[in-house]
TrEMBL record:
GO biological process: tRNA wobble base 5-methoxycarbonylmethyl-2-thiouridinylation
ELP1 three-helical bundle domain span: 199-365
Low complexity bias spans: 273-285, 385-394
PANTHER family per UniProt: ELONGATOR COMPLEX PROTEIN 1
Residue intervals of the ELP1 TPR domain: 27-190
Protein name: IkappaB kinase complex-associated protein
InterPro entries recorded: A-sol_ELP1, Elp1, HB_ELP1, TPR_ELP1
One GO MF term attached to the UniProt entry: tRNA binding
Domain spans labelled ELP1 alpha-solenoid: 1-20
Region Disordered, residue ranges: 273-304, 372-409
A cellular component annotation (GO) from this entry: elongator holoenzyme complex
Amino acid sequence: MVAEKSQKDPKEYLPFLNMLKQLEPSYQRYTIDKYLKRYRKALAHLSQCGNEHFPEVLQLVKEQKLYTEALRLFTADKTQYKALTVAFAEHLVGHQQMEQAGLLLWRCGETHSALQSFVSCCSWRHALCVAQLIPLPPDQLALLARDIAEKLSDQRRYSEAALLLDQYANDCEEAILALITGAVWDEALRLIHKHQRQDITETNLKPALLEAFSAQTTFLETQLCTFTRHRSRLAVVREQKLKARADMLDEEGPDCADAELFSEASSVLTGSKYSQSNSRVSSRSSKNRRKADRKKLSLKEGSPMEDRALVHALGEIVTTVDKMREEVHGLLKMLVLFEFGRQAQRLQEQYSEALSLLETALPEVWPDNALGSAPLTGPNSTANSISASFQQPSPAAPPQTQPPDAEIQAVPKMRSNIKWKLMVLT
């Protein structure tokens, strides 16, 4: 085939052909496929060449990352299968896929290595299964549980850490303290009574409740203060943009028609330069584009996209405060239980007022027909369409209340269906 399809001198390929003729058929095909860079076919032929060629199999698999294909070529009861599985697991560890590596190692009987992989990624259920499969002595199992619990606490997974400390390390006190740290009040109370540790109620639980109350009220005050400031600034920015737009439309001059048109178009195109730049990178996913857009938002007064930055910041505050419903509900129950009625009353009233303020502000920050009032710009617009979009009034709301060219973001959804209030405090 080489002789027919190329102009090569026989001296160039005859030595190679002669070498191939001396090889066993499967190894010969492997050599040819590898030379032609058909690595999957080469691996299939090499796997048929006997155990003496398995080191070459392993090397080829590692070089070309053909782990899945290689495992299909060997049965699970072969030593080669285990060696390939371990190599695959090492590859996964190099790519920070620790849990998947642990599963492969567990499957092929490398339980100690599997345990290390599971512990490193806090896959604690798998880790404990393997630990008891080894099996670890009780004292080592307790140390393992403490180690994993510490990692889980660092990840703010306090309920899981408490379970390990209580059930595997047999340390109910540390388990309760972990739950208190994570504000998992109901579960902490359950363990306190299960282990008859009412002393922890006085020494740790009650002080933590008062501290949580103080933190929640301070956080709410800060969020509402920031929300009010951004809301006021947004009204000013929108008013300034509307005034600037009206001033440009009212200008009169000898070349008014053309000058006005190009001035408006230039202003709009300048103001939307960020969206234009985004169109040049349309190959990126919409998620990446939104992330890039957010990076360009600035709350600095006078910045080109200050109104969008303010809307984005207000939306984050709404979402953050709304997500506190379950947390506030749990804290209120504990405050009532331990007769901190004054604090509970204050927290419920403050949070209720915060939610009411945010709900009232939604129509102002995210007006229903704001999108319809934005000027029509973009690659498909014309000079006439841009001019018409400026001069066309909004049918649903007075021009004074509509932002001229801000891209209005989606209205945050508030979960009014979640019942968080306590009737005993109303």
